[in-house]
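Repro case for the chain-ordering regression, as requested:
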Amino acid sequence: MSITEYFNLLWDDYTLRTITLGTAVLGAICGMLGSFAVLRKQSLLGDAISHAALPGIALAFLITGAKDSGILMLGALISGLIGTFWIRGITSKTHLKSDTALGLILSIFFGFGMLLLTFIQKQPNANQAGLDKYLFGQAATLMESDVQLMIIVTGISLFVMLLFWKEFKILLFDADYTKTLGFNTKFIDVLITFLIVLAIVLGLQTVGVVLMSAILLAPAAAARQWTNSLGTMVLLAAIFGAFSGVFGTAISASQNNLSTGPVIVLVAGVFVLFSFIFSPKRGLLFREIRFHQNRTDLKLMKTLQFMYGIAQEHENISHPHAIRILNNFHGFTKSSLKKLENEGWIIIQGQQWAITQKGFKQAQEMYNQKTMNE
Amino acid sequence: MDNQKIAVQIDDLTAAYNYKPVLWDIDLSVPEGVLMAIVGPNGAGKSTLIKAILGIIKPIAGSVSIYGKPYSKQRKMVAYVPQKGSVDWDFPTTALDVVMMGTYGSLGWIKRPGQKEKKIALESMEKVGMLAFKNRQISQLSGGQQQRVFLARALAQDAAIYFMDEPFQGVDATTEIAIINILKELRKAGKTVVVVHHDLQTVPEYFDWVTFLNVKKIATGPVKEIFNDDNLTKTYGINYKVAVNK
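-- result from build under test --
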């Protein structure tokens, strides 16, 4: 199946439509809430939470014996939340730094989860097959009820986010100040964290424990490159996330045996790479271009300054001089003279140049600019 | 001075990080309408004092009252200017947006800022000479401009008492003069201003009230009466000679 075939099939094939809708919604909610994680510099928290969810999934299965995704998700949510609060506890109650706390919780919970998984696999119960799908995720297992749950959770998250937009924003920027204004910062903090945990748990079935944090962070990191407004960033991250979901699903569906989770993450990675290079304000490419531009402009100004110096010595500033005399000094080329002429700062006649009133003024202002700005 | 109202009253305030006391049994009253500097060496607990007063860190013991009532009931009368290094200036927002945050306290939960709040924010920006930069992304502001934005944000709170944590840190002379003029105007309007300050040379010129702090309160009172070598030596531990311009 090619990509075009996939998109044609999308409208007819029920399973494909469900999976695509699911990954799109998942990408959107993760991008949206991932923006907050990135801006709070809690990027690694997502990784720790998703790993911490694994034992919850295994325990939920052991207790209920059912593989119902709703119940497993509840287990993941509880164990993810326990992991999160332990991380916070370790950071606030001990001298350990947050990276240590994250690393500890991540590996201990994940280790325990893996232990439970191997224990489950050894049991003589045919029902146990497939739990390991939660490691790397499998979008194909998404059912309509799963997608409905995703849509409901996304809707609620969106509503809460819009309701507390002002509070979220000020907490992200300046938590101490928020406290002095009389806001209960602990409540806002817990609310944001809870939403992030919720988004992670929602994605475990599709993307898996190991790669989950990428789908949370990549769209947000890409979006940050394109805008300086929080609202736009959240919106863009949601769009990038949704597209990663759709394209990831399309690519994995059109190739045999490519698992969806990793492909979605790779597509999101492409968004990040593209944004890092091509974003107009923060991208590497334009920064490089601007750097060269500035250097050329500076050279131009140097030439003009030099001409200004000569013109100052004459009563008539527009008295023509030979181009030859410019040769002695570094930074002059034919094209830079041409540019100066285009700006209307000088006139070139044959082998001679003369500075114009406009050019004289420009050079004069350059000199004064420093003092004027102060 | 005798019948002057007390704006801030602090009793038995003690704070600690882990087991090390940072503030020890501070009693302090700040009269209304003074421009007060808190001075002391590094690690003396100057910032901690402000943070403990504002409830940002939880003191072990002690109480703070604002105009005779507990601080928690009087939050709206108090504005805070944190150290500008305490936030990430690469946060995706504009200068106006940050100043607007000063109105969030009076707005309360959920309600969004509207035209009225925008007007307040713009007026505050004008007072600090930052109106031309209102749409500027905050990462594009210089250190002095960032400090002015923080000041404008506090002005937007329209409080009676202002706590500022080193507002002159890392700003150039022009900004320093601009800021001190605003502080003096606040005092003229009857507001009380408390400033954590590092530059002892400028204390007599800028402030009329001073508190010497080094874990314990060493002295507090009018600059003219208590800003002397004796108190400086007690606070800084060495014989600190400063040119006191009287």
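Ordering looks correct now. Chain B has a mean pLDDT of 92.
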